[in-house]
Amino acid sequence: MNQERLEQQLNDLKKQLISLGMAIPGSIQTAYLRCGKKNCRCQQDEKLRHGPYFLWYRRVNGKTATQSIAEEDVHLFRTWIDNREKLEALVQKIISLGADYAAFLKLPPENRKIQGTQCAESKIKGIKG
User: Fold this and answer.
1) Which parts of 1-118 fold into alpha helices (H)?
2) Mean pLDDT confidence for 60-84
3) pLDDT of residue 105
4) Is residue 74 within 8 Å of 26, Cβ to Cβ?
5) Do residues 120 and 112 make contact, with C-beta atoms less than 8 angstroms apart?
């Protein structure tokens, strides 16, 4: 692994982050519910329950929060939830890359030199490598 390659990988991950868009936690569930009327059809047969209703579940301050969402917004919310999963995966890749970079910096400076460039430590100190 060399410095240029590490920096290129970081730039690639940054581009992916920028392209993500909105991200939210949680999941979408579809529910068919019974109402409170004793003589309603939904009380007699599970197949005749009211719905579908679309519910967005997420954790807020350690508690489950639920919000109804309109059917036309379900695709948008699912896209945002998918974006959050992609965001978390990208963050893990950046953290892993950071660990690789830290290991790279632990090498003796003469083993980090890249022909025609400065090593990371030299850039920080302003000294050519």
Assistant:
1) 3-19, 41-44, 74-106, 109-112
2) 97
3) 82
4) no
5) yes
Cα 77 from Cα 64, distance rounded (Å):
17
* pLDDT at 118 exceeding the cut of 70: no
Q: How much is the pTM?
A: 0.72
What's the token pair of residue 103? 């290991």
Buried b (16+ CB within 10 A) or exposed e, 26-44: bebeeeeeeeeeeeeebee
User: Could you tell me the two tokens for 22?
Assistant: 């909105």
Let me know how many helices (H) and strands (E) the chain has, helices first.
Answer: 5, 3
Cβ atoms of 116 and 128 closer than 8 Å: no
Rg of the chain on CA atoms, in Å: 26
What are the Cα distances from residue 58, in Å, to 29, 35, 42, 61, 80? 11, 24, 28, 10, 13
